[in-house]
């Protein structure tokens, strides 16, 4: 027997079974999508911006990392809720409410965000292979892209639980890589407390702060999360329960990702303080010299796992964006080529990879309003969401998040226009 949500979504009622067993099964269905999105929160772009911020400015921007994580939680929950309640992804929602010309324009900026994301992930993985195994950068980038494709093929063959499990394992491996460094060079409590006091130190710190926000509240993760939850039918009578489990899924994933991001900056502010912020090689060498061989290797392994796992997630997000906005499925090989080629060109150009990574995250910050404003509008729409529309407190939080992102972007654009950025 089936029923419909306020958006007209066809849903599937659960089969007859004991209620405790059915409740556990419905809860388990809600667990996992947030961990896929969370991998995007600890990709090589995060590593570059957070460690660069710590190495150059100490704990000054720690509050930005914490604030960005606190912003990311409600955003990911709203994205998940939109998919659950309506059965549509955020790109599909936008596509249904704008003209064809506006839809194409929106897709172009979303595609640019996906390319910027993949640039960071491929470059990070390639650089890790280069430093760990001595591989040339361009072949290493090709291998990273191929591994991402294999992971998605395995997901198609083995089911979505494979990708979710892979992402969870990746989060723990990445976290372990940074915790090793932090524990061997622990920060002082006074330093941590001081870093939580909001402050900036000039135009360069604004650029890094924008990069941190863009690397954490990532547009493609917002698009993807709504698509992942839309894939999972839920009976209307059990929707409130599924939303509670979804909040747990998002909260747990954000705590884990947020802790890893804090560890990145803390590692930069302690073991990497004063190390040039434009070279992962210099960072790994400094960790080896100051902390020990294990710390340098753990850092590079974390970078490799971060790049490989997040490139699979990024390609998946790009496919969801194209399917929602253009109403067509594109071969994963074609999607991989579209986003891989720019990364390989940059790897071959001789530009400093870490600088490219930081700038790519700034580009993500500029793309955030295009994801957040439609998401806020959709989840506040009573006709679309019915009784599951945002309540006033959640709306106020979401409006504040959008306002912070827009202000950061306006300041960033102002610095670029005046030549100070």
Short structural description:
This protein is an all-alpha fold and 421 residues long. It has a single domain, classed as Amino acid/polyamine transporter I.
Question: Helicity level, as a percent range?
Answer: over 70%
Integer tally of domains: 1
Cα-based radius of gyration, to the nearest Å: 21 Å
E-strand count: 2
Number of helices: 18
Whole-Å distance between the termini? 59 Å
Shape: globular
Label the CATH architecture.
Up-down Bundle
Arithmetic mean of pLDDT: 83
Uncertain regions: pLDDT < 50 for 5+ in a row? 1-5, 7-17
Strand order of the largest sheet: 1-2
Strand content: under 5%
Structural classification: mainly alpha
Highest-level CATH class: Mainly Alpha
CATH superfamily: Amino acid/polyamine transporter I
Largest sheet: 2 strands, antiparallel
List keywords for this structure.
421 residues, mainly alpha, Amino acid/polyamine transporter I, two-stranded antiparallel sheet, 18 helices, disordered N terminus
Describe the fold and architecture.
This protein is mostly helical and 421 residues long. It has a single domain (28-417), classed as Amino acid/polyamine transporter I (Up-down Bundle), CATH 1.20.1740. The protein is 78% helix and 1% strand. It contains 18 helices and 2 strands. It has helices at 19-30, 33-39, 44-57, 62-86, 90-95, 100-133, 137-158, 160-184, 189-195, 203-216, 219-230, 239-269, 280-290, 293-326, 332-349, 353-379, 382-385, 392-417; strands at residues 2-4, 10-12. The chain has a two-stranded antiparallel sheet with strand order 1-2. It is globular. Residues 1-5 and 7-17 have low confidence and may be disordered.
């Amino acid at each position: 027997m089936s029923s419909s949500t306020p958006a007209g979504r066809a849903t599937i009622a659960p089969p007859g079974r004991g209620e405790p067993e059915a409740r556990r099964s419905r809860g388990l269905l809600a667990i996992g999508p947030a961990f896929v999105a969370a991998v995007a929160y600890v990709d090589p772009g995060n590593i570059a911006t957070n460690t660069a911020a710590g190495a150059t400015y100490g704990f000054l921007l720690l509050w930005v990392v914490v604030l960005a994580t606190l912003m990311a939680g409600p955003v990911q929950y709203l994205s998940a809720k939109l998919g659950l309640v309506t059965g549509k992804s955020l790109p599909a929602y936008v596509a249904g409410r704008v003209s064809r010309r506006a839809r194409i324009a929106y897709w172009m900026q979303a595609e640019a965000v996906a390319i910027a994301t993949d640039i960071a992930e491929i470059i990070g993985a390639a650089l890790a292979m280069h430093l760990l195994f001595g591989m040339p950068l361009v072949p290493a980038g090709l291998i990273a892209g191929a591994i991402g494709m294999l992971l998605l093929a395995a997901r198609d063959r083995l089911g979505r639980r494979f990708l979710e499990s892979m992402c969870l394992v990746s989060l723990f491996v990445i976290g372990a890589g940074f915790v090793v460094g932090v524990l061997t060079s622990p920060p002082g409590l006074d330093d941590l407390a001081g870093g939580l006091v909001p402050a900036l130190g000039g135009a360069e710190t604004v650029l890094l702060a924008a990069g941190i926000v863009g690397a954490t509240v990532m547009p493609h993760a917002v698009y993807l999360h709504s698509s992942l939850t839309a894939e999972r039918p839920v009976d209307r009578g059990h929707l409130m329960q599924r939303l509670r489990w979804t909040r747990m899924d998002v909260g747990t994933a954000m705590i884990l990702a947020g802790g890893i991001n804090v560890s990145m900056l803390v590692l930069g502010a302690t073991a990497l303080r004063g190390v040039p912020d434009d070279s992962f090689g210099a960072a790994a060498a400094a960790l080896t010299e100051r902390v020990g061989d294990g710390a340098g290797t753990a850092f590079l392994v974390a970078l490799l796992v971060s790049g490989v796992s997040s490139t699979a997630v990024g390609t998946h997000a790009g496919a969801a964006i194209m399917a929602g906005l253009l109403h067509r499925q594109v071969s994963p090989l074609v999607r991989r080529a579209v986003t891989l080629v720019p990364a390989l060109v940059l790897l071959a150009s001789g530009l400093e990879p870490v600088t490219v990574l930081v700038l790519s995250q700034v580009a993500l910050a500029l793309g955030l309003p295009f994801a957040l404003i439609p998401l806020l509008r959709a989840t506040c729409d009573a006709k679309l969401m019915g009784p599951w529309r945002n309540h006033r407190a959640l709306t106020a939080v979401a409006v504040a998040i959008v306002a912070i992102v827009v202000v950061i972007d306006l300041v960033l654009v102002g610095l670029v226009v005046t030549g100070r950025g």
